[in-house]
Amino acid sequence: MSINVTLDVMLAKRKTSVTQLSEQVGITMSNISILKNGKAKAIKLETLNRICETLNCQPGDLLEYIPDKE
């Protein structure tokens, strides 16, 4: 099982940069980049909530479930 973070897609759709999102959400650019590049092992619901508020999207717009291949 794998969860793919599609934050980069949503940033492009909203024409928003990592810098702008970082300032609006209140977390570091480094942490936004970790999420954007799929390197995050976890995300706080509070952070996910703030990102969704800022980008006017749903959590499902940012997270994609990819099942294991059998």
Keywords:
70 residues; mainly alpha; 434 Repressor (Amino-terminal Domain); 54% helix
Commentary on this structure:
This protein is mainly alpha-helical and 70 residues long. It has one domain (2-66): lambda repressor-like DNA-binding domains (434 Repressor (Amino-terminal Domain)), CATH 1.10.260. 54% of the residues lie in helices and 11% in strands. It is built from 5 helices and 2 strands. A two-stranded antiparallel ribbon has the order 1-2. It starts with a strand and ends with a strand. The mean pLDDT is 93.
What's the layout of helices and strands?
Elements: E1 2-5, H1 7-13, H2 18-25, H3 29-36, H4 45-55, H5 59-62, E2 63-66
Antiparallel strand pairs: 1-2
Helix pairs in contact: 2-3
Main-sheet strand order equals 1-2
What is the 3D shape? Answer: globular
Distance between the termini: 11 Å
Q: Portion of residues in helices?
A: 40-55%
* Nearest-integer average pLDDT: 93
CATH class, please? Mainly Alpha
Order of helices and strands: EHHHHHE
Major β-sheet annotation = 2 strands, antiparallel
User: What structural category characterises the helix and strand content?
Assistant: mainly alpha
- State the domain count: 1
CATH superfamily: lambda repressor-like DNA-binding domains
The count of DSSP E runs of length 2 or more, i.e. the number of strands, is 2
CATH level 3 topology: 434 Repressor (Amino-terminal Domain)
Gyration radius over CA: 12 Å
- What is the count of helical runs? 5
Unreliable stretches (pLDDT < 50, length at least 5) are none
